[in-house]
Amino acid sequence: MKAPSPPCADPANKKLLATLQGKAHWPPPLWLMRQAGRYLPEFKAIRAKADFMTRCLTPDMAVELTLQPIKRYGMDGAILFSDILILPWALGQDLHFEEGRGPVLPPLRHEEDFRALDPARVAERTAPVREAITRLARELATTTTTLLGFAGAPFTVSCYMIEGGGSRDFAAVRRMMIKRPDLYAQLIEMLINATADMLSEQINAGAQAVMLFDSWAGILPPNDFRRWVIEPTRRIRALLKQRHPTVPVIGFPRLGGVMTGEYAQNTGVDTVSLDTSTDPLKILPLLSPHQGVQGNLDPQLLLNGGAPMVKAAQALAETLRGRSHVFNLGHGVSQFTPVEHVAELVEAVRSLSA
Ligand SMILES: Cc1c2[nH]c(c1CCC(=O)O)Cc1[nH]c(c(CCC(=O)O)c1C)Cc1[nH]c(c(CCC(=O)O)c1C)Cc1[nH]c(c(C)c1CCC(=O)O)C2
User: For binding substrate, which residues are annotated in this chain's numbering (predicted)?
Assistant: First the structure.
């Protein structure tokens, strides 16, 4: 087990933040998507005490869960313990999580359902999230760990809102886009503004960089991808840059495939997070010199651990050496991952030598 992130006198000495601002570091800074999660025994202990929404909306719990992987492994990044679906909930859509099924929301179907959403209540309903960030920022101020805020990107959030949860074929959201583009555009417009405001509030509370998760970006045909993935992300990034010019924005257009380069170019995100299926060497020529790359080790390698994981991690870091690279997975940590494998990965990346 690794010592917690070491204290450091100079809060500017945050390797992850500097990397997100375009610098190359060796070895690369590291954090893992879903690093606070069910693979950790200390996470399961809290999970037994409170349901998911309570954990997200009780600052003490959100702070503790955010810090668990930092205390155990000394990650360079602490991602706020929360969820992308806190925004629909804050807009007024009911939300609960069911064991074995995931999130459940009353699906948006009719014009009245859309009209019932109210962005005016988001700030008040997300107050506990900002409280957690304020406390985390204080706790991490004298460490080398960077605090990351996040939100879902409008397209992915709209999928859950319209489908009422996860989906295999996204038929309802596609139908809405095709049959009621006016209504769908209004929803996306609302989500763009609400997401930019919420992320701006996270930054004001102490988040040092923010990430937009577009987990279902890859289901869209190219023109829809441009309109509903690239354009909303470009606008959120622009709104954030007006208010917080130096705060990095990470974008994750999961399964974006050949559209990933266009996404990086046209959204202007500071760092593009690559999913497992993407070859970084195919994307690099499409990025501007200071645009960073995050990712993209296969979570299945982490699940299995040992030499195949270590070799792949070394090769990935070596491939991206000399440019802004944040070491991460291509998607979240599996809940079945042995804790020792995470320690082994952190050690493998930390011990990369000159
Ligand atoms: C699509 C999506 C969601 N949430 C998120 C995404 C985008 C990333 C991705 O594609 O995975 C993002 C998310 N969700 C969570 C975080 C916290 C920070 C972290 O990464 O550690 C983050 C960044 C906590 C969580 N969000 C959830 C859990 C597990 C629930 C629990 O512990 O009770 C955690 C730790 C629940 C969740 N939340 C969501 C689903 C579909 C589920 C159910 C699936 C599951 O149970 O793993 C929506």
Answer: 34-38, 83, 160, 215, 331
Domain boundaries, the chain: 32-291
Order across the sheet with 209-214: list the strands: 77-79, 146-152, 209-214, 249-253, 271-273, 292-297, 325-329
Is 36 among the annotated ligand-binding positions?
Answer: yes
Interface pTM, i.e. ipTM = 0.92
Looking at residue 2, its pLDDT comes to: 46
Question: 3-state DSSP: the chain helix, strand, coil percent, rounded to 5?
Answer: 50, 15, 35
Sign of CA dihedral 299, 89, 145, 193: positive
Pocket lining: 103 vs ligand 1, CB cutoff 6 Å = yes
This model's pTM is above 0.90: yes
* CA 212–ligand 1 middle distance (angstroms): 13
User: 166 in ligand 1 pocket by Cβ < 6 Å?
Assistant: yes
Looking at domain 32-291, does it have CATH number 3.20.20.210? yes
pLDDT digits over 37-61, tens only?
999 999 999 999 999 999 999 999 9
User: Which is it for the CA torsion 94, 236, 158, 260, positive or negative?
Assistant: negative
| Residues 45, 28: Cα–Cα separation, whole Å | 32
Nearest to 48 by CA among 105, 99, 89, 95: 99
Most ligand 1 atoms within 8 A of CB, residue of 44, 55, 65, 83 to mutate: 83
Give the pLDDT score at 354: 67
Active site (catalytic) residues: 34, 38, 47, 83, 160
